[in-house]
């Protein structure tokens, strides 16, 4: 690793998975990697952890790590069937698909709430295994605790059958008494639960040598086959490469948490337990080491405990539910989704739900409550007991709202402010009939075919009456006619992005738009001639970003609100020569807030009338002018254009070469000659053309040699085509 770290052509990424499962040796390794960052600042480090160990991570991160938070949400709903299909095919070794298709059909029959349980890869794996072995049992699973319980019950049944059929010595001793066999297995499981909690206490994902010895001794005394029980409990021998002594491993930390939760359940339900308080049971388990007690590490244990008690007897949930909620609060549960998961595990009745809601309300983020499909069923009960003044509805399938209509009714009664985050073509009919008595403050109309709005004309009128703010994510040529006919000056409409490709399009309706994030009214590098016409817009609305022809600058109001500006140099349709970039020198007067300037010149454009671009700097004072040279056919042409347009500071922020037609050797020459001509690049060179890995290495070396001061995150990015480059745009583009 140290050999590669010193190579400037190699990007180093360390991936530390499962920080919450660390022990002292792995924590020391993490600190060593962290300290490397001080000497080699370009190193990247990804660390994953469960929420309960975030504070400990911050305690160990040191001063050199800059933190970016990413929440891992599990497998996206659209990918879960693919995951199930691939995994089930592997475990069954089937070349035919009938059984796998039945599994996918079974999964798709789940409610949105149950599907949310399977966002985690481990749960999908367990579902595939459970369905293969007992699809009837799989249909009863409603919680994570239920999933673990169902799988282990099957494994225990198989264990009993194997012991009976293999005629182990125990069968002679107990004279074939199955009840006695099951009793002894239950005693072993209780020992395992205790050892699991001990491993968790010691921050281990395995049972150590002493624990294995205790389990072996128990099996010996009770004539139980140790290896059979170990397999039935999903345990395996530790890898000798990573362990110098005998120990047994859990396949996933989730199993340790489940077994530890079973230990707490056994204590709470045991007549011999004197003080049946969860926290007291844990402190007694620590004994004299109680100072090492760190409650946050048991967050998942407490959550599973709630599910286990619900499976055993709902009276136990009534008895211990409030205590479980309080210890979860103490572990640091603050995320809305986590609390909704806890609620699903507990399966509470309406009376208990009210108590649950009041307990967690201070720990919910009700200012930013977003309701997704998977949460509709839960919140159709909980919302009645919460003081919710505003919600965001992110519903992909409005059929779920028909199944639980009281959610919308509660929002009506509470007169909560509502933001509908996504309203697509398939949602129009539902909201057209449901929106009347709702206090809709904002709505996002992501309509692909505006004909659907003509079928339900009341929708826009209702939104207008409510003075709802309407956001249109992307407005293209096919939407123009509808909005020209329907937008009024009093409407409150924002557009995230306007992308107009046709030349003769009436954009006068944009005068009535409250604001536009990004507006693109020119085709760029896809083979068309650059247009010479300027859109006829009586009044330009406030915009953050605009990408259009250079000549439009003089049509803009002064000053503009633009932060990003992309300009195409237009050409004379007769000669192909670049038209004088009239108004380019006025950019900063028209756009005093400008932080990013991008200028595009096509390879077929004849040079002439070109002059230096203005110096534009970002909020950090760094040069931020990007030059796009598309469809380059000649190295000399590219150098001539780049030097003619070079800002006075002698530096471009980024250099883009889409649709590049040069060979690798010509590209290497271009980069070298640009550097020799005094054309510097501050951040990155981006190229789009088909290439091999060896060619990319060759060009990367040329970029590093020409521009040795590029930041480690910058350098070369070489895409196979324009489409790939366009999916990773700069700024709003």
Count all strands and give the number. 19
Q: What best-fitting shape do the alpha-carbon axes yield?
A: globular
Rg calc: 32 Å
Sheet-strand content, in percent, reads 5-15%
The residue ranges in which pLDDT falls below 50 over 5 or more consecutive positions are: 240-244, 523-532, 729-733
Q: Average pLDDT, to the nearest integer?
A: 85
Instruction: Return the structural class.
Output: alpha/beta
Protein name: NACHT domain-containing protein
Organism: Meganyctiphanes norvegica (Northern krill)
Q: Could you explain how this protein is built, in words?
A:
- With about 725 residues, the chain is an alpha/beta fold.
- It contains 31 helices and 19 strands.
- The radius of gyration is 32 Å and the shape is globular.
- The model is unreliable at about 240-245, about 525-530 and about 730-733 (pLDDT under 50).
Please give the structural blueprint.
Layout: H1 2-5, E1 13-16, H2 24-39, E2 44-47, H3 54-60, H4 77-92, H5 98-108, H6 112-117, H7 121-133, H8 135-138, H9 144-166, H10 169-173, H11 178-201, E3 206-207, H12 209-221, H13 226-232, E4 236-237, E5 248-249, H14 253-269, H15 278-286, H16 299-312, H17 314-331, H18 336-346, H19 350-360, E6 369-372, H20 373-382, E7 390-394, H21 399-403, H22 406-414, E8 417-423, H23 428-434, E9 439-445, H24 451-455, H25 458-465, E10 469-476, H26 477-486, E11 492-499, E12 515-520, E13 543-549, E14 564-568, H27 587-590, E15 596-602, E16 625-630, H28 635-645, E17 651-657, H29 664-676, E18 680-688, H30 693-706, E19 715-719, H31 722-726
Parallel strand pairs: 1-2, 6-7, 7-8, 8-9, 9-10, 10-11, 11-12, 12-13, 13-14, 14-15, 15-16, 16-17, 17-18, 18-19
Antiparallel strand pairs: 3-5, 4-5
Helix pairs in contact: 4-5, 4-7, 7-9, 9-16, 11-12, 11-14, 14-16, 16-17, 16-18, 17-19, 20-22, 28-29, 29-30
């Amino acid at each position: 690793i140290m050999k590669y770290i010193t190579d400037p052509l190699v990007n180093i990424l360390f991936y530390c998975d499962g920080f919450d499962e660390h022990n002292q040796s792995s924590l020391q390794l993490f600190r060593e990697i962290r300290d490397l960052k001080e000497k080699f600042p370009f190193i990247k480090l990804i660390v994953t952890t469960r929420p309960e160990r975030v504070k400990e991570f911050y305690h160990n991160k040191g001063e050199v790590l800059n933190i970016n938070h990413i929440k891992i949400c599990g497998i996206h709903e659209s990918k879960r069937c693919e995951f199930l299909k691939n995994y089930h095919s592997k475990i069954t070794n089937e070349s035919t698909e009938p059984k796998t298709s039945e599994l996918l059909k079974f999964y798709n029959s789940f409610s949105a709430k149950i599907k949310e349980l399977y966002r985690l890869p481990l749960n999908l794996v367990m579902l595939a295994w459970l369905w293969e072995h007992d699809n009837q049992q799989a249909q009863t699973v409603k919680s994570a605790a239920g999933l673990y319980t169902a799988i282990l019950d099957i494994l225990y049944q198989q264990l009993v059958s194997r012991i009976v059929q293999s005629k182990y010595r125990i069968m002679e001793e107990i004279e074939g008494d199955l009840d006695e066999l099951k009793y002894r297995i239950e005693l072993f499981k209780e020992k395992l639960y205790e050892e699991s909690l001990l491993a968790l206490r010691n921050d281990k994902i395995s049972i150590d040598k002493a624990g294995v010895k205790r389990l072996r001794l128990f099996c010996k005394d009770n004539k139980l086959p140790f290896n059979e029980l170990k397999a039935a409990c999903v345990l395996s021998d530790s890898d000798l490469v990573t362990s110098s002594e005998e120990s047994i491993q859990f396949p996933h930390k989730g199993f340790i948490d489940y077994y530890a939760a079973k230990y707490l359940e056994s204590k709470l339900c045991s007549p011999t337990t004197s003080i049946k308080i969860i926290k007291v049971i844990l402190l007694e388990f620590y004994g004299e080491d109680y100072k090492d007690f760190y409650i946050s590490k048991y967050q998942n244990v407490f959550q599973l405990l709630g599910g286990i008690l619900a499976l055993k007897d709902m009276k136990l949930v009534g008895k211990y539910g409030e205590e479980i909620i309080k210890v979860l609060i103490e572990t640091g549960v603050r995320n809305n989704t986590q609390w909704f998961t806890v609620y699903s595990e507990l399966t509470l009745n309406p009376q208990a739900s009210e108590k649950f809601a009041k307990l967690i309300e201070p720990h919910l983020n009700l200012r930013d409550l977003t309701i997704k499909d998977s949460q509709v069923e839960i919140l159709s009960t909980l919302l009645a007991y919460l003081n919710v003044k505003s919600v965001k509805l992110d519903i992909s399938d409005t059929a779920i709202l028909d199944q639980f209509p009281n959610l919308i009714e509660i929002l009506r009664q509470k007169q909560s402010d509502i933001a509908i985050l996504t309203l697509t073509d398939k949602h129009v009919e539902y909201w057209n009939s449901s929106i009347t008595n709702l206090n809709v403050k904002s709505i996002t109309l992501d309509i692909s075919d505006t004909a659907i709005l003509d079928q339900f004309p009341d929708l826009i009128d209702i939104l207008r009456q409510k003075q709802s703010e309407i956001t249109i994510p992307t407005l293209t040529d096919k939407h123009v006619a509808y909005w020209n006919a329907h937008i009024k000056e009093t409407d409150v409409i924002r557009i995230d992005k306007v992308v107009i490709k046709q030349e003769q399009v009436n954009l006068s309706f944009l005068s009535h738009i409250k604001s536009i994030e990004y507006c693109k009214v020119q085709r760029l590098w896809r083979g068309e001639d650059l247009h010479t016409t300027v859109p006829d817009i009586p009044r330009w609305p406030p915009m953050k970003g605009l990408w259009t022809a250079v000549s439009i600058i003089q049509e803009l109001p002064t000053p503009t609100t633009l932060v990003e500006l992309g300009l195409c140099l237009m050409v004379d349709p007769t000669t192909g020569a670049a038209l004088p970039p009239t108004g380019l020198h006025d950019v900063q007067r028209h756009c005093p807030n400008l932080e990013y300037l991008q200028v595009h010149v096509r390879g077929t454009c004849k040079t002439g009338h070109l002059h230096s671009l203005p110096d534009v700097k970002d909020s950090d004072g760094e040069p931020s002018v990007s030059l796009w040279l598309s469809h380059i056919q000649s190295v000399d042409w590219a150098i001539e254009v780049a030097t003619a347009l070079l800002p006075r500071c002698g530096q471009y922020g980024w250099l883009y070469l889409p649709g590049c037609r040069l060979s690798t050797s010509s590209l290497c020459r271009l980069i070298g000659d640009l550097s020799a001509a005094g054309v510097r690049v501050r951040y990155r060179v981006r190229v789009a053309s088909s290439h091999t890995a060896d060619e990319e290495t060759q060009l990367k070396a040329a970029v590093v040699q020409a521009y040795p001061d590029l930041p480690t995150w910058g350098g070369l990015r070489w895409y196979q085509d324009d489409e790939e480059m366009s999916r990773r745009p700069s700024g709003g583009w």
